[in-house]
């Protein structure tokens, strides 16, 4: 009995000590599921690289905010020529890289040229494909010339892979990232954690945090006790969805559900019979009940989509009603395709809960119209080589997290194997249209073509499930790009 | 004796060569392209080809195997594809977590298992034995990741005595570092202790039924002396065998436990390297582990010779 009292007293005391210590805190430990392979966003596609470094360590000419809007970054202002081909960026003065070297227009020229040369290994090389020339007019002015007007150019320059690096340090950025951001790398204990500290020489508004640690928590089951014990104070995107109820009812935590740019879709191999027939794809779309899939694959948190477009973005058209859930209609479509007895196919599922859980629901829903799916679980590496590269698949489930990526349906050789000249024309026109209203109109048209033609069955927008200490402010609600921008994060009270 | 040892060493060397071929072949058969994985979905096929060339992935298979095997012989384990640092550096960083963890767990399981085994064997069929073996049965049945989570909730979340996971590094102080290895070591050790105590018990019971035990008792030796000095020593062969096997299990177990406690150990590194198709890291570390297991088994073979003098004389 006495022992119990001692233990209880000790735990209450340590709890009190921990709480009072929160008051003047300037440090933060965040949990991330995957460790970045390195810290150079211009040399690797892993989303974790951007999560740690974007806006914190590295900055681009422009930056993308929590709402997906373009804001000035290293460029203070910009002017676009009347023909939409020449962008003149006026850069901030007094900017220094973390190694003390001064930032100037030459660094911008170096970074953009490096990303677009022939043997560039930039994971988003296509962002720079329309640049024909970059010139440093003077130390604080850069002129970028394009091969034609590009509606999304300023947005593209704010993306993770378009950050500005210095010539002298670019090759070492994988291990020792040298950027211009408000935080710099303190140390990286491989496999364990990455610690950033405040950059005292930052050119802009200094960060409120002195220290931010990204701790790698690969196991979803370990995420909840890590939060409860106070070891970790924030998960920008919580891996353990099942435990959300427990955290939501705990006043010590804020649970914030936001949007991502992740269109979760049932991808179809459009060239492979019988999926080359429109009626078969229409049958799939009609047989699928989105709400049941959303419940199983995202705990009911995902927003249904009817085309390849995020409901949070400007120009979104609600097309979820184009093919309502209707078994009888789906069977009619199959009959129209000459397959009234159904058929068999495979579905390859990558190792993410939304795909593995969603795949089982889809399997049982398609059984209702006589389509027998064989589930083949694959790893990411297998998915990338078998499905994405070799197009060896019938169906798969995946979330396309790149922002504004409706154009992937017009890319030649893309794994959907979809080729619709009408759609390609719309995308081509969109690329060179700068006028805002015209762009929205074209985006709407593109969405409608996809919704009716079903090159993929559109399921839901992947939610971002933020969980952090209730006293923490300034974390991003949404993920227009996968980044944990800590520049405005602070502890209150 | 020398012939016995020589034979063991030759077998060990052959096993290593065979293992290197199997490990290399399996990793090469595994579908997935490390270059595509690094560059992602938006990279073009040409970019992937450039990177494959840079990584040396386009060289013929046999040549790459020979290159790798030759490197291993000169203790050069190659460079990680993803981290682009020498594999040996990664191993050095990680082994200071995994090896202490495995050793603490091995020590813990032995310290728990031998007394429990002796206790049970000497009280065969009585209440104490039934209780101990019931507990051991439970210990074998409980999955260690679940047991680990229960430990975390009790000692880290509720009592706040130890951190819920992570490793601060040995530079943070021996006690701080040890504290973060404590729960994982217990989680690893208990299932092993359960198995080991059952083996120790049955080996002891078998020995206790031997004639020479009765003789020892008959000549007036006290029961404790017979149990600890005569019986236990003869029961050690199966116990040592299991202990050697368990070291391999402990190394495998760290993959799961290091994930649950997010410890930066070898197990985590392998797991991560497999999903990222960092082939060279996987191949080299698996070979290191194979070598470790073979070495342990060699030591076990030698220790047979120590506990059983008959093996020494055999030619």
Which percent band covers the strand fraction of chain A? Answer: 15-25%
Radius of gyration of chain B: 24 Å
Dominant shape of chain A: globular
In angstroms, what separates the terminal alpha carbons of chain A?
Answer: 38 Å
Beta strand % of chain B: under 5%
Percent range for helical residues of chain B? over 70%
Distance between the termini of chain B: 7 Å
Average pLDDT level of chain B: 87
Strand tally of chain A: 19
Percent range for helical residues of chain A? 25-40%
**Unreliable runs of chain A:** 15-22
Number of strands of chain B: 0
Describe the fold and architecture.
The complex is a heterodimer of chains A (493) and B (315). Chain A is built from 13 helices and 19 strands. Chain A has helices at residues 2-22, 47-53, 105-116, 153-156, 220-228, 244-248, 278-287, 290-298, 327-336, 353-367, 380-389, 421-432, 436-453; strands spanning 27-32, 62-64, 70-72, 75-80, 86-91, 131-138, 141-146, 183-189, 193-198, 211-216, 234-235, 253-268, 303-304, 343-349, 371-377, 395-400, 456-469, 472-473, 490-491. In chain A, strands 1, 8, 9, 10, 11, 12, 13, 14, 15, 16 and 17 form an 11-stranded mixed beta sheet that branches. Chain A has a 4-stranded antiparallel beta sheet with strand order 4-5-7-6, with helices on one face. In chain A, β6 (131-138) and β7 (141-146) form a beta hairpin. The longest helix of chain A has 21 residues, at 2-22. The radius of gyration of chain A is 24 Å and the shape is globular. The two termini of chain A are 38 Å apart. By secondary structure, chain B is an all-alpha fold. Chain B contains 13 helices and no strands. The N and C termini of chain B lie close together (7 Å). The chains are: A alpha+beta (493), B mainly alpha (315).
